[in-house]
Write a structure and sequence with these properties.
Layout (H helix, E strand, L loop, with lengths): L4 E2 L8 E5 L23 H14 L7 E2 L9 E4 L12 E4 L5 E6 L3 E7 L4 E7 L1 H6 L1 H11 L8 E4 L9 E2 L1 H10 L7 E3 L5 E3 L1 H11 L4 E4 L14 H6 L8 E6 L1
Parallel strand pairs: 3-6, 4-5, 9-13
Antiparallel strand pairs: 1-2, 2-14, 5-8, 6-14, 7-8, 7-9, 10-12, 11-12
Length: 252
């Protein structure tokens, strides 16, 4: 099966892709293009999958740069290939041609950024915690430090869990309302004291409030389409031992 790559016209002509799980070498619960080195999948098979992604992005595998994601608001700026242990962060930026920035997700938001005029790009992993703590704004700040202009930056949110699949408890809701009572707009009622959280809408709000030039979501739900996407929450509901990770990439 060939790779399936979702792109956004808003990011063109910059080369990028939100890769689905189709076209990979993994099997079992990881069946498809599992690119998660932190998963329990076979290391050599994950390497094969990542090599296919690098080839699709027209880079060598060691030019596929990523970070050790920890649900933080930390950003790493890179200007060369990355060797050794990955730095702990949840976003990565560069102004160096030939480097492909990558983010792994399985329900959280993968966000790709580009200022084509300044030739600066970024990629962020924005789950609820990272988004609430400011990882999107921190990515914009890091891009500006490399010469980007915030008003010229386009940010596109890739496949993420949608509101219809994201039930949360009262403590989760309270955490957002404590940060800003206006965040109630991103929650809808559910059974009992539960609520349904709209993660992509929250991401778009934070991006637009930060002054990004253009922001959009590709409108694919990871939870509701198991043939195309991995989903941490779906794997938990199905009592699976582990789950695959999707990769999203962008390069100059």
């Amino acid at each position: 099966m060939t790779l399936e790559i979702i792109t956004s016209d808003a990011l063109l002509p910059v080369k990028h892709g939100f890769f689905t799980r189709r076209g990979g070498a993994s099997s079992g619960v990881y069946a498809g293009l599992n690119c998660g080195t932190g998963s329990q999948d076979q290391t050599e098979v994950v390497s094969i999958n990542r090599a296919r992604v690098a080839d699709a992005m027209d880079v060598q595998q060691d030019h596929l740069c990523g970070v050790w994601q920890v649900h933080s608001a930390d950003v790493v700026s890179v200007d060369d290939t990355m060797t050794g242990e990955k730095p702990k962060a949840d976003a990565i930026v560069t102004a160096t041609p030939g480097l492909a920035l990558s983010i792994l997700t399985a329900d959280c938001q993968p966000v790709l950024f580009s200022d084509p005029d300044a030739s600066v790009i970024g990629a962020a992993h924005a789950g609820w915690k990272g988004a609430l703590d400011g990882v999107l704004e921190a990515t914009l700040n890091a891009m500006e430090a490399l010469g980007a202009a915030r008003g010229n930056i386009t940010a596109v949110i890739g496949p993420s869990i949608s509101q219809s699949a994201y039930e949360v408890g009262p403590e989760f809701l309270d955490r957002f309302l404590d940060a800003d009572p206006e965040y109630s707009r991103f929650f809808a009622g559910a059974d009992g004291d539960k609520a349904m959280f709209d993660l992509p809408a929250f991401g778009l709000y934070r991006l637009r409030a930060a002054g990004v030039g253009h922001a959009e979501w590709v409108r694919y739900c990871t939870y509701s389409d198991p043939d195309r996407f991995y989903s941490y929450r779906r794997s938990c509901h199905q009592n699976e031992a582990d789950y695959g990770r999707l990769i999203s990439t962008i390069r100059l």
